[in-house]
Design brief:
Radius of gyration: 22 Å
Structural class: mainly beta
Largest sheet: 8 strands, antiparallel, barrel
Helix content: under 10%
Strand order of the largest sheet: 15-16-17-18-19-23-24-27
Shape: globular
Length: 390
């Protein structure tokens, strides 16, 4: 789906992508539209047509250590008052030998690309990563997108810097203050306007997760064509992530959990910039969808009458400013037999000791209800931390 960043030449009051909507979607009581300011001019610039020369990229370090993480975080989406979830996004963070840290940019990657970094410094004494303020990620024709910590009182770029904390016990990097926003601003050099906000960032080390299992997946698309493809599922006890459940967002993951023999997948996960993956119908959205296990044919079947759709706010143009969807999946079926080898915690070597931590890094007696971190130590002195859900 093509996305166009709208920029007002006179007043920077935008916060959306222009698209070509096909189907109008009504919202449920759980989703409230916010007041969207009207652009005062028709001047618009399509940043997606800009070349790579317009990216203000951080330079790669001369030398350092690259570590792979999967991140979960909250992100604002056009037209919604609440923060939504972007889950299991793969990032490679570079710890430079010069003390600098290079973190892949989290904002507007569909426009800015996935090769733009945010820079910061790492303090080994405090395990703090402090991100630099006012980092440009994209520029064109006098307009610039830049990233900074947001001042909670004024809404403007803050003089204080955004901080992350590395937990030496688990290897997790998380926001030091989960209520503080890291914000993408747009500016013409005189006035700044918020484009989107991110908060409550959690980077989980790659080795916390078992290898994904690939499963056959069937669905009926919005044109009533029966389709077949595959999805990847990462199983972590009760918790799971699924990729490609909405094939028009092939790299996006949806979080779910096992409830008895069934799988329940959540709505409100972000599929792409300003684009949600939502379960429901064209009349009403629902917070989740149950895939019921059928032992007869060894499949998980999605609820009858419930579709998985992309979901976005359209602003401007000749159509009403409201929510629309372009693509949907119905009659969804996941085949339980994995198409590739199965990897799970049960297949790993036995630990000699096990410790549990909550998501703040505090040691706990056992896995709490919800998400916890299990740290295992083995006879050869090696350790492994995994994310578990109870």
């Amino acid at each position: 789906m093509k996305k166009i960043l709208l920029i007002a030449a006179a007043v920077l009051s935008l916060n959306t992508f222009a698209q070509t909507p096909k189907v109008k979607v009504s919202t449920s009581d759980k989703i409230k539209t916010e007041e969207v300011s009207k652009l005062k001019t028709a001047a618009r610039i399509d940043l997606t047509k800009a070349g790579s020369a317009n990216k203000a990229k951080a330079k790669a370090p001369a030398s350092g250590t690259t570590k792979t993480y999967y991140a979960d975080y909250e992100e604002s989406v056009t037209g919604l008052q609440s923060m939504m979830e972007r889950v299991h996004v793969k990032y490679e963070i570079i710890f430079g030998d010069d003390g600098k840290v290079y973190i892949p940019n989290l904002f507007m990657r569909s426009v800015a690309g996935d090769d733009v970094y945010l820079t910061g410094t790492y303090d080994s004494a405090t395990n703090e990563i402090t991100l630099d303020n006012n980092q440009d990620i994209y520029a064109l024709m006098g307009y610039t997108l830049f990233v900074s910590r947001k001042n909670s009182t004024t809404g403007n770029p803050d003089t204080e810097k955004y901080k992350l904390k590395l937990d030496p016990q688990t290897g997790i990097i998380r926001s030091e203050d989960i209520t503080t926003f890291l914000t993408l601003y747009i500016t013409d050099g005189n006035a700044n306007e918020t484009y989107t906000d991110i908060r409550a960032i959690n980077y989980y080390p790659e080795d916390m997760f078992p290898a994904p299992e690939t499963h056959k997946y069937e669905y009926t698309d919005q044109n009533n064509n029966r389709k077949e493809t595959t999805i990847d599922i990462v199983n972590m006890g009760t918790l799971c992530y699924a990729r490609n459940l909405l094939p028009t967002c092939p790299n996006a993951w949806i979080e779910g959990y096992y409830d008895g023999d069934d799988i329940v997948f959540n709505s409100y996960d972000i599929g792409d910039d300003d684009l949600l993956m939502m379960f429901g119908s064209y009349i009403e959205m629902v917070p989740s969808c149950r895939f019921t296990y059928d032992s007869y044919d060894n499949t998980y079947k999605g609820e009858e009458g419930i579709n998985l759709m992309d979901y976005y706010y359209y602003y401007g143009g000749g159509l009403p400013s409201t929510f629309y969807t372009d693509n949907s999946c119905s009659d969804m079926v996941i085949y339980a037999d994995a198409a590739t080898g199965i990897s799970s915690l049960e297949n790993a070597k036995e630990p000699v000791s096990t410790e549990y931590f909550d998501l703040s890094g505090r040691r706990i007696n056992n896995a709490d209800k919800g998400i916890s971190i299990m740290r295992m130590k083995y006879a050869d002195g090696t350790t492994k931390a995994v994310k578990v859900m109870k």
